[in-house]
TrEMBL record:
Pfam families: p450 (PF00067). Belongs to the cytochrome P450 family. This is Cytochrome P450. The keyword Metal-binding applies.
Length: 435
């Protein structure tokens, strides 16, 4: 490799980080200082603050509240409309044909990324239709249900390894290990390689967020490179010796004689690893925190265990793992009578829509008996509705019920800390006494 090529390979990551994370973060901070709603909600989310007042403020500005770059909304009906409307497409920051756009194109990485094409998160029809149809045929309700018994066994094994006499960080010892071990089952990872996937899952999860620090960004890129190399070998092994796992079935899936390309298979596996890990970690951590903070609700669950499934949906409504998602307007249109121009960004605040009093009675109350808890939009809506919703619900139900059944005296200790992320919402540390 020549000196100039070597220098280029060192410069490109800096440019990618600067354009994709440092610049958006600086712009959002400046917008927040000037009172812009888009800037405020993104910046304030990273502090772990209670955003209920801001949700209400945005809702009070009408169906679509104006921001410096477009609109934002916390109204349930409008969130669903935007996410289902084909005038709006998924987006990450775009920089046009100017110098920033040219730098972004020059510095682009070849490694598959969970929020870059061909990831299901960001491709649109017609490619999305073909791609999702193949993936959905594998990730069926029946396939998820077949994982239930194994998920229960994994939860039991993890809790068997905890000493009730010693305080633990539940994120490190349980909430993180349960979903990534289930992901290993989905990906058909041999037992001797699961420690590798455990480490990769934890390190790759921040790839879904915006405004990463340089240190976290470099760690994520290094992890994705390692995962890509490992996945190349793993896919070859599964093709030679298919197993009883969802990734083997995905490799074999065909529609009109055509299956997923190598890059699409890698993108799907990467998305399962990053999205399936982080969001379920947050669901479990947020659920444990909420139920210990609301002992009356936990007592109701102990008296009526059939409510655990509904409790998971109320946790998802009340403190969802994902704060918001953005859509770019692809053509001039109107939403609720308000014009939205091509190129404008509409930020749909999922957590805010889940507190809409037009849909949820007493929206700021945590109530595991809520009859319409499942009406939350924490899994999105429309063609990009979360593919792993049923899996997350199943893992949440088993993971939460089992830890409280095993350790009825569980209580949180001081030192809990929220993640400093802007889109993902959950705990970084959750110290507890198991009782």
């Amino acid at each position: 490799m020549s000196t100039s090529t070597l220098a280029e390979e060192h410069v490109k990551p800096v440019v990618r980080w600067g354009i994709g994370h440092a610049l958006p973060r600086a712009v959002l901070r400046l917008a927040a200082r000037r009172g812009d709603l888009q800037g405020r909600i993104t910046v304030e989310a990273s502090t772990g603050a209670d955003l209920t007042g801001l949700f209400d403020e945005i809702r009070a500005r009408g169906p679509l509240a104006a921001t410096k770059v477009g609109h934002t909304t916390t109204r349930h009906a409008i969130v669903r409309d935007v996410l289902a409307d084909d005038a709006f497409v998924t987006t990450r920051p775009r920089f046009g044909a100017g110098i920033l756009g040219k730098l972004a194109a020059w510095s682009a990485s070849e490694v598959t990324h969970p929020v870059q094409p061909p990831s299901l998160l960001v491709v649109e029809p017609p490619a999305h239709t073909r791609y999702r149809k193949l993936v959905t045929r594998v990730f069926t309700a029946r396939a998820v249900e077949q994982l239930r018994e194994r998920t229960q066994a994994i939860a039991d094994e993890l809790l068997d390894g905890l000493d009730p006499a010693n305080p633990v960080d539940l994120i490190e010892t349980y909430c993180g290990l349960l979903p990534v071990t289930v992901i290993s089952e989905i990906l058909g990872v041999p037992p001797q390689e699961r420690a590798t996937v455990l480490a990769l899952g934890a390190a790759a999860a921040p790839s879904l967020d915006l405004g990463l620090s340089w240190r976290v960004f470099r760690n994520v890129e290094s992890t994705l490179n390692t995962f890509d190399a490992w996945l190349t070998r793993h896919l070859d092994a599964l093709r030679a010796n298919p197993g009883d796992n969802l990734l083997s079935r995905l490799i074999a899936a065909r529609e009109d004689g055509a299956g997923l390309t190598e890059r699409e298979l890698k993108a799907t596996a990467g998305l399962v690893l990053a999205a399936g890990f982080e969001t379920t970690v947050n669901l479990l951590g947020n659920g444990i925190a909420l139920l210990t903070q609301h002992p009356d609700q936990l007592a109701t669950l102990r008296a009526r265990p059939e409510l655990w499934s509904n409790a998971v949906d109320e946790i998802l409504r009340f403190d969802p793992p994902v704060l918001l998602t953005g859509r770019m307007c692809s053509r001039d249109t109107t939403i609720a009578g308000i014009p939205v121009r091509r190129g404008q960004l509409v930020t749909t605040v999922l957590a805010g829509a889940n507190r809409d009093p037009e849909v949820f009675e007493r929206p700021s109350a945590f109530d595991i008996t809520r009859q319409n808890a499942r009406d939350h939009v924490s899994f999105g809506a429309g063609r990009h509705y979360c593919l792993g919703a049923q899996l997350a619900r199943m893992e949440g139900e088993i993971g939460l019920r089992t830890v409280f059944e095993r350790f009825p005296g569980l209580r949180l200790l001081t030192g809990a800390r929220r993640r400093p992320t802007r889109i993902l919402r959950g705990f970084e540390r959750l110290p507890a006494s198991l009782g």
